[in-house]
């Protein structure tokens, strides 16, 4: 029995209309939701041993933020072929995985992910941004997985429905990150002022 977590990338930004679709980054909401989902999956003890991720910037950022809070920093495999992939392409990517991996996550795009979920579970489920679907698959080897595999959909988790403690935990982490960023910025500015002062003294000596 294998476990598959299907995650759609976080909410992306449309601020720059000239950016190619593949280069669009996450919006603020996408950043928050990705971090929150990482905390939640860690709490559920479903940390993936490998993450197969689309090469789109919004998907890669989702994976990075998810891993920061979930605790799986070295498990992401970015694949160009998963960018806007169809369901069959996700299955082909999964078939190549080593059999010692019991729990795997895919981060990608609709409509391919919704078709993949329907194909493997027989259930038609909407996957808004940053949603995670938890499936079990009746295979011992990933190479046995195919479009006829009859898996079981265990649960679907949406960012808006996560427990309040997860939301508060993410807010606290965000505050800590901002404080650390402010401290680094302050040190940098202090160093620059010091260097500027030294430069002025040197110029006066040379006059």
From TrEMBL:
Gene3D superfamilies: Phosphoglycerate mutase-like (3.40.50.1240)
Basic and acidic residues: bias regions: 13-27, 173-186, 192-207
InterPro entries: His_Pase_superF_clade-1, His_PPase_superfam
CDD domains assigned: HP_PGM_like
Full protein name: Phosphohistidine phosphatase
PANTHER family per the UniProt record, alphabetical: OS09G0287300 PROTEIN
SMART domains: PGAM
Positions of substrate binding: 58
Disordered, as annotated region: 1-27, 173-207
Pfam families, per database record: His_Phos_1 (PF00300)
Recorded superkingdom: Bacteria
């Amino acid at each position: 029995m294998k476990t598959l977590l299907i995650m759609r990338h976080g909410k992306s930004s449309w601020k720059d209309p000239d950016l190619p679709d593949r280069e669009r980054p996450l919006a603020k909401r996408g950043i928050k939701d990705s971090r929150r989902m990482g905390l939640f999956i860690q709490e559920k003890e479903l940390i993936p041993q490998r993450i197969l991720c689309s090469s789109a910037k919004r998907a890669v950022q989702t994976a990075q933020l998810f891993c920061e809070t979930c605790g799986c920093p070295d498990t992401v495999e970015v694949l160009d072929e998963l960018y806007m992939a169809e369901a069959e392409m996700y299955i082909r990517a999964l078939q190549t995985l080593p059999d010692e991996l019991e729990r795997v996550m895919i981060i990608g795009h609709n409509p391919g992910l919704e078709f993949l979920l329907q194909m493997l579970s027989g259930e038609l489920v909407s996957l808004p941004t940053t949603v995670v679907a938890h499936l079990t698959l009746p295979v011992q080897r990933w190479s046995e997985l195919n479009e006829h595999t009859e898996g079981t959909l265990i649960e679907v988790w949406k960012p808006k429905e996560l427990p309040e403690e997860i939301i508060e935990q993410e807010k606290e982490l965000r505050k800590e990150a901002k404080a650390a960023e402010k401290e680094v910025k302050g040190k940098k500015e202090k160093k620059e002022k010091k260097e500027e002062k030294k430069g002025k003294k040197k110029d006066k000596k040379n006059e």
